[in-house]
């Protein structure tokens, strides 16, 4: 394969479409990760609140 053929491939519409698709997939994966991080943080807050509540109620 010649260098000009390779250049044409990377400048072509199919490769551009593939690259846009991969970028979209990356954005979706990042969004899922961000949501999971939010859920994990919320679980930590709930666990901390329950721990503090048990200390308060346990002292009665």
Number of strand segments: 0
Structural class by secondary-structure content: mainly alpha
Order of helices and strands: HH
Can you give the helix content as a percent range? over 70%
Distance between the ends: 81 Å
Beta-strand level of the residues, as a percent range?
A: under 5%
Our count of domains comes out at 1
Low-confidence stretches: none
| Apparent shape | rod-shaped
Which sheet architecture does the biggest sheet show?
Answer: none
Question: How would you portray this structure in words?
Answer:
The longest helix has 46 residues, at 13-58. The protein has one domain (3-58). The relative contact order is 0.06. The protein has helices at residues 3-11, 13-58. It is an all-alpha fold and 60 residues long. It has 2 helices and no strands.
